[in-house]
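Before the break, one more example. Copy the sequence into your notebook; we will annotate it together after we see the structure.
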Amino acid sequence: MTAKGELWRLGAADVVDLLRRREVSPLELVEASAERIAATDGHLNAIPTLCIDRARAHAERIMAEDPETERPRGWLGGVPIAVKDLVEVEGVRTTWGSPIFADHVPPRSDIAVETLEARGAIVIGKSNTPEFGAGANTFNEVFGKTRNPWNTDKTCGGSSGGSSTALATGQVWLATGSDLGGSLRIPASFCSVFGMRPSPGRVAHGPKHLPFEGLMVDGPMARNTRDCALMLDAMSGAHPEDPLSIEVPAESFSEALTTLPPPGRIAYSPDLGLLPVDREVAAVCAGAVETLAGTGMEVAEACPDLSGALDVFQVLRAALFAADKGEMLETHRDALKPEIIWNIEKGLALDADKIGRAERARGAIYQRCVRFFTRHDVLVCPCVIVPPFDVDTRWIDEIEGHRFDNYVDWLGLTFVLTLTACPSASVPVGFTESGLPVGLQILGPPRGEAAVLRAAAAIEEAIPLGTDIPIDPRGPDGAELPLG
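Here is what the structure looks like once it is written out:
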């Protein structure tokens, strides 16, 4: 058994097994997590807001419960988690990465947090995020930059960058994230962990003032597929305050990893027919797919018709920003970063005809994907067009001679798949020559989270990376940094 001081090295599913056998206590896990955060976060800034006393009190309540009490599906038994700072936690500072809310302490937790805590998760802190989750580099005016643990000169991605960094370094065993245009998948790719965007409604959240909006979802992040399935079981379920939320499936996602066969028909696209991809990223992903084919899986180069998807997403995203934050532009314009101002103003300039055309085009994309998955089990492609880049670069404006004129366009490989409403994930498949992580994106059929997870498990088995997660933070020369 791992020594108590090394509990942070274990996976979440292994720790839950220890909790169930009462070989470790929730309070011991809280202390192990707090010690690991103290040792590593000075280099990273992954969890800037801690609530360790709150976590200790929760651990003690779990320990006082009758062990014979029937537990719900996805019971975590006292595992400390990080919650992204876009999601409210009762009594804990929640800022959305914005100076406007720098001192905000909510009286109630988000439904997603309530669900997790009811199933034995212990919130130990809030993970860093860009302002209002806008952008795929995690920095803001409240807490500053979060750095990539594989090279602290690089970005960890975003917007769930604090969560991915915390997982990669063993600060927590599980973490929450959210995803509009790739915010669960991109930081997972950049940090060599697992991030999953579930179907809209799979994870109940809110209550929100736009409860019928379905582009933004909350979801799980973990160190591997098995842990992610466990986290998704703990997060899933219907709630009356979320009108889009759906009931849990008959079979748990953890069970599906052992009962479902691996995918037999894999579609592969090197670029979704949309954007150039960095040559090293393309080579790592192509090599991973070649390895899968060598295991006997049927691989065909194919992709659903995503024509027009780049523009469709930009219109619907802008409309969402206008609806969600239009009033904030009037009252707090000086406190908003320029990317958010641009996105809100883009939305306010739209007319009903343009929004209607985008909605119809999205419907057509969905129907084409439904037909696509009658011929293929999953689609795989690169997750991000570039490897992790300089932490001081706000966003990628050019690659392979292709220029981007705004902070969103370079995220096209993830955000066009958001439009499908199908579940998707990033699974680690390799590293660049300089040691930066690369993730392969998996898209499954409608409400096919189990199929995505099973495909990810097959990829993990076929492509061992030879690098154990979690790691100690590393500097630009690849050397481990001294721990605090």
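DSSP finds 14 helices and 17 strands in the chain. The chain has one domain: 4-462. Try to locate both features in your own notes.
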